[in-house]
Write a structure and sequence with these properties.
single chain; alpha/beta; Rossmann fold; 8-stranded mixed beta sheet; 5-stranded parallel beta sheet; 12 helices; about 30% helix
Length: about 400
């Protein structure tokens, strides 16, 4: 007779980061109900020769569970980028923490990596090294000549180290999705943040539109983003909103030509006077998004917002996206360094960040069959006071008293 395992209890799940003081990992652990601090659960030892050796902390007087202290536990490793460590170093830490988990009895290891490492290296120099939605020609193969197929290697190394399941956010690469799905036998979860964007657009004043969507335009910058923006359109449920599809011709790494795609539902003349949200999964240099917004602004739009899941705040990107063709930037904190005001630079005047730890915790609870998390909100908003839409929260005495009585305090 087939038996069904009972749902996991919160105590059966241990959340750690690949650094002990990562606020992103700490917030996810808190949202899942973990009362112990990550620094009290795992020691991030580094030997004098610079080798990393994680160690799950145990009672030094307990000699009965040596090598078995994690028996039956599910270890969740939260991995994000850092200002102080390279992604290569963080990837190696993931491998060693996963192996430490399994070598001490863990039943399962889950890697939560919102911006999945090595996703840009999603093909190799030969046919069959990377799934694509197009036929790879000699020019595409040559781009990867002499390189490793790094995303496949990363998936295989994670699995070898003991990772059983991978959770990421809005990964754009068909090749990466195919590799991780195969290596992890379907236990790969690519969470798409439709509900986050829809909630914010409906409830914030970042764009202005009627209750049926009149006055709003959603834009896909290329055919690669079309499916995501189409689904975003459906989730928003605004029947009179418009959809516009652009086409880009890349003549070089930073040389991009933008035009209206012949398959676009809406012409460029029809968007005049509207507020527009252009969606994309990531931005690095900002060349494409700026060219796209400049092209769209020629149609006399009212307001142009760039919504992006993974924001690489490079100095080049900050300089380019300061362009007045972009009125505001809406992003997630999948790369938590974007919360740093120095990293934001002058973009802090038009940048708003949705902190997604609670949303991730909710999705993790569903994936791991845990009790529902205690927080109702999907995200928290981080916005500099330099942003014209910033409103300082004024607390009444009753609200402050309620907060003092409600422990722990909500996220800021």
């Amino acid at each position: 007779m087939l038996t069904v395992a009972p749902p996991l209890l919160a105590g059966d799940v241990i959340v750690v980061g690949n650094s002990s003081d990562d606020p992103f990992a700490i917030d996810i652990a808190f949202a899942l109900g973990q009362s112990e601090d990550i620094a009290d659960l795992i020691s991030m030892k580094v030997f004098a020769n610079s080798e990393f050796c994680p160690r799950f902390i145990s009672d030094e007087n307990d000699l009965t569970e040596i090598g078995h202290q994690l028996e039956g536990k599910t270890i969740v490793i939260v991995s994000t980028s850092s200002l102080t460590m390279s992604r290569n170093s963080l990837a190696m830490r993931n491998l060693l923490i996963a192996r430490a988990s399994k070598d001490n009895g863990a039943a399962a290891v889950v890697l939560v990596e919102p911006d999945l490492f090595y996703s840009a290296q999603d093909r190799g120099p030969r046919h069959g090294q990377g799934t694509t939605h197009f036929d790879r020609d000699i020019k595409d193969l040559k781009k990867f000549d002499g390189q490793p197929f790094s995303s496949r290697l990363y998936a295989q190394m994670l699995r070898l180290a003991g990772v059983d399941r991978v959770v990421t956010v809005h990964n754009h690469s068909v090749a990466v999705q195919a590799e991780f799905t195969e290596v992890f036998e379907g236990r790969f979860h690519n969470l798409i943040p439709y509900d986050l964007y829809a909630d914010y657009l409906h409830n914030a004043n970042i764009v202005d539109f009627d209750s049926d969507g009149e006055g709003l335009v959603l834009c896909a910058p290329d055919k690669g983003a079309r499916e995501f923006v189409r689904e975003m359109y459906a989730v928003l449920a605004l029947p009179k909103a418009k959809f516009i599809l652009l086409d880009k011709q890349r003549n070089g790494e930073r040389d991009v030509e933008i035009s209206l795609d012949p398959e676009s539902d809406t012409s460029i003349d029809e968007v005049a006077g509207h507020d527009l949200v252009l969606f994309d999964d990531m931005v690095r240099t900002g060349s494409t998004v700026v060219k796209s917004c400049e092209f769209l602004k020629s149609a006399k739009l009212n307001r142009t917002v760039f919504a992006v899941s993974h924001f690489y705040a490079s100095s080049e990107g900050r300089e380019k996206m300061a362009n007045p063709a972009i009125d505001e930037i809406l992003t997630l904190n999948t790369l938590p360094t974007v919360l740093n005001r120095d990293v934001q630079g002058r973009l802090r005047k038009k940048l708003v960040v949705l902190k997604i730890e609670q949303w991730l915790a909710r999705n993790l609870a569903e994936i791991l069959e845990l009790p529902r998390t205690r927080h109702d909100s999907l995200y928290h908003i981080d916005m500099s006071s330099k942003n014209p839409r910033f409103k300082r929260k004024i607390w009444s005495n009753d609200q402050l008293s309620s907060l003092r009585d409600d422990v722990p305090l909500p996220f800021q």
